[in-house]
Design a protein that fits this description.
Helix 18 runs parallel beside helix 19. The protein is flat. It has 27 helices and 24 strands. Helix 20 links the parallel strand 18 and strand 19. Among the domains are: 181 residues, Ribonuclease Inhibitor (Leucine-rich repeat, LRR (right-handed beta-alpha superhelix)), CATH 3.80.10; 144 residues, Leucine-rich repeat, LRR (right-handed beta-alpha superhelix). The longest helix has 15 residues.
Amino acid sequence: MKKITHLDLSHNKIGDPGAECLSGSMVRLDSLTHFDLSHNYIGDRGAESLSQGMDKMKNITHLDLSHNRIGDQGIKSLSRIGAMNESVNINLSHNEVTVYGAENWSEVLEEMDDIVYLNLSHCKIGDSGAERLGSRIGSANKLTHLILSDNDISDIGVQRLSQGMDRLYNVTLVDLSFNKIGDTGAEYLGRAMGKMDKLMSFDLSNNCISDHGVDRFSQGIGKMHQITHINLGFNKICDHGAVCLGKGMSGLIGQDSYPFKPGFHERDRILSKIEYVDLSHNDISDLGVEGLSKEMKSMFDLRHIDLSHNRIGDHGVVCLAEGISEMYHAGDMDSDPFLSSFHERDRNINKIEYLDLSHNKIGDPGAECLSRSVVRLDSLTHFDLSHNYIGDHGAESLSQGMDKMIKITHLDLSNNRIGDHGIKSLSRIGAMNESMHINLSHNEVTVYGAENWSEVLEVMDNLVHLNLSHCKIGDSGVERLGSRIGSANKLTHLILSDNDISDIGVQRLSQGMDRLYNVTLIDLSFNKIGDTGAEYLGRGMGKMDKLMYFDLSHNCISDLGVDSFSQSMSKMRHLTHLNFSFNKIGDHGAVCLGKGMSGVIGQDSDPLMSVSYRRDRILSKIEYVDLSHNDISDLGVEGLSKEMKSMFDLRHIDLSHNRIGDHGVVCLAKRIHEICRPRAGKVIHTYSFMSSFHGRKRSMNKIEYLDLSFNDISDRGAKSLSESIELMVNVRLLISAITR
């Protein structure tokens, strides 16, 4: 027993009594190095018991108690562990720690000089807690990771914290995201981080930093010789800040806005190791991108660029494209003495793997210029230009530039103005690349564009994700897709929502879908599919045993269609999410769906009479059921609730906007109560099917969402339901509107 080194009990339901019992046994585990109790219900009393049990565990190096209910008193008890062990990685994030808990940890930091990892994120320690940590944190000179995100820290707290951080010479990661740090705080951090020459990753996203703060902060970046990751997304940075940040990242050192001050030599400039830059959700326009792109010449290792959700237009993209091209120009290497000194090093800007320019103002001219540069990015895998103003001409230019990008796997051009001609041009990309995720939703595609894509499907047999939603391709377009889509046998996601598809189009589509053995998600919502279409889909999807998500919401399906469709559901052995909301389903349809979801196979109304029932029934994996906005009454809920016995993983139930009354709620409550009621370890033996799964834990109490709003429930129904709700210990949301 003493040889146990790793013990992981995370994501369970352990509380203080369990932690107390566990601590009594842990005294013997003197070889334990990794101990994980995250995502449980441990409070102060449990933390205190654990600290007493672990005080003799000299070899503990990783302790994770995140996502619990530990408060200041528990933190004080746990601080003893740190004082008795060396090289400890401690994660206490997502607890109920305040300034007093932070003060307790600040005191132990002087003794625990070998701590290497400290995570106190999502604890709301505030400025006072940050000040107390800052007064002692300099003693932890071996600290490598400091995570204090989401703690309500403002400039006041950062001022004192930064004074202690300037002695953290070995720190490699600092995360202060999701706080209230402004320009003054950024200035303090820039000064402190100037001495952190080993710092590699720095996250200041989701704060209140503007150009002035970035200007001051960027002066410290030039001294961080090992910095690779910078995240300043979700701030208030404009053009001047983007220019200053570019100069800081490129290795320019100095106080003024143009760092080449008197006495500056090229040998004082360092080689940038920046790999990851996130400036998304700011206020950067063309001028800022122009200044930023000029400094990209020395960013040899740049792999990830995120400039989404800004105000970048065509001119900014042109400058960005020129910046990328300049990195390849041989003449520039010779003309720049700084760059020529590194001629032995491979200029590997073609290692850019991620480029996100979504949610900007890029049109066809910008796309055309960008296409000339991306041809050199042969390592690009993710390319996002969604939510812009790109039309057919821009799409055609992009297709010409990307035909040599053999590693591209994710292409997002959704929410643009691309029509059929542009779709035809883009189809060439798909034919030249494998394992493609393509999103062309919310464009101006019609049946002709769908026809072009249907032709390329035969060549592109490695397509894994296809999104043509909100394109109005109609029945004709779907028919053409259906005739060829069977060739894409590696397809996992097919999204055709809001396309005016009716039963006619579904008939041809379903014929091709029966060969999609690897599909996991199908979305046909917001169409005009009726009962006949549902029947066709049921036949075509009978062979999709890997299907997990199916959405037929906002259609015209009634009981007849659901009856036909549900007969094939038992073959979908991995189905977890089912959405039939906003249809015309009544009581009979609800009963049929219940039998289909529970794994019952057969045509008759009572499958329990079938001889083959017991051996053919499967264990339901349904987690999410949405039958809202239909015409289901008490009778339908009664039949549906009878089949819930085998739905062990059910977490989300939405029956809102129906005609359910007290009797239906009473039936539902009885079933929940029967399944969740403690039985002293015994198992239900009503059916041989249930007894065959006696080893599986009955987890009906994992229901997290129950919506019965906008029905006909009165006090009687609410009372019955309340008795069952007590057994669902994890339920987080209950909406039960009493309408009479």
